[in-house]
C-alpha cells in the first residue's frame, strides 16, 4: 500500500541515519588517535573526570533539544563502551 | 598537565557529540510523527521488512566509512529500542 507520508518520514530517517553513521566513523577516527597519543605520551587510557564533564554537557544539550537527558547519557556510555572495545582490540593486535 | 594535542582532539569529539545529540533529537521527532501517523492510519507499529532494509543499508554505509558494520547494526538496534520505549511511554499516557 502506497503511503506518501510514511515514505517521506522514512526518507528523512534514512538521511539522518547516514549522517549519524558518518559522524560516528569520524568520532572513532579521533578516539583512535587519542588512544595512540595517550599511549605515546604515557597517559592513562581512562579519565573519569573527563567522562563526568562529557555526560553533564550532553545532558544539558539534550534538554535544550527536547531529548531525554537520560537517553543522552545512555547513548554516550554506549559509544564509550565501543571505544574501550576498540582500544582492547587494538592492543590485542600488538 | 597541559596537552594541546589532547585538548584539540577533545574539542573535535565534543563538537561531534553535540551534532550527534541534535541529530538524534531530530530523528526522535520524526519517529514520534511516524508513530502518530501509523496509529491514525491504522498501520501496525512494527515493520520487520523495513528494519531489515535499514540494517543492510547502514552496514553498507558503515563499510564505506571504515566503521565496523556490526557496530552500525548494534547502534541501529540501540536507537530502535529507544523508539519502542518512546512509543510505549506515549501509549501509557493515554
Task: Explain the overall architecture.
The structure is a homodimer of 94-residue chains. The first copy, chain A, is an all-alpha fold and 94 residues long. Chain A is built from three helices and no strands. In chain A, helix 2 runs antiparallel to helix 3 (69-92). Chain A binds chain B through residues 3, 5-6, 9-10, 12-14, 16-28, 30-31, 33-34, 37-38, 41, 43, 50, 54, 57-58, 61-62, 65-67, 71-72, 75-76, 78, 82, and chain B through 3, 5-6, 9-10, 12-14, 16-28, 30-31, 33-34, 37-38, 41, 43, 50, 54, 57-58, 61-62, 65-67, 71-72, 75-76, 78, 82.
- Given the C-alpha coordinates, what overall shape of chain A results? flat
The proportion of residues in beta strands of chain A is: under 5%
How far is it from the N-terminal to the C-terminal residue of chain A, by CA?
54 Å
Biggest sheet of chain A: strands, sense, closure? none
Topology:
Two copies of one chain form a homodimer.
Chain A lengths: L3 H38 L6 H17 L4 H24 L2
List keywords for this structure.
homodimer; 94 residues; flat; mainly alpha; 3 helices
Give me a quick take on this structure:
Two copies of one chain form a homodimer. Chain A is mainly alpha-helical.
Amino acid at each position: 500500500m502506497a503511503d506518501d507520508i510514511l515514505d517521506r518520514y522514512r526518507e528523512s530517517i534514512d538521511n539522518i541515519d547516514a549522517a549519524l553513521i558518518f559522524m560516528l566513523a569520524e568520532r572513532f577516527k579521533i578516539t583512535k588517535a587519542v588512544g595512540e597519543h595517550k599511549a605515546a605520551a604515557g597517559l592513562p587510557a581512562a579519565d573519569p573526570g573527563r567522562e563526568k564533564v562529557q555526560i553533564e554537557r550532553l545532558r544539558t544539550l539534550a534538554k535544550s533539544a527536547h531529548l531525554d537527558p537520560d537517553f543522552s547519557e545512555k547513548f554516550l556510555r554506549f559509544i564509550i563502551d565501543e571505544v574501550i572495545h576498540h582500544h582492547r582490540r587494538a592492543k590485542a593486535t600488538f
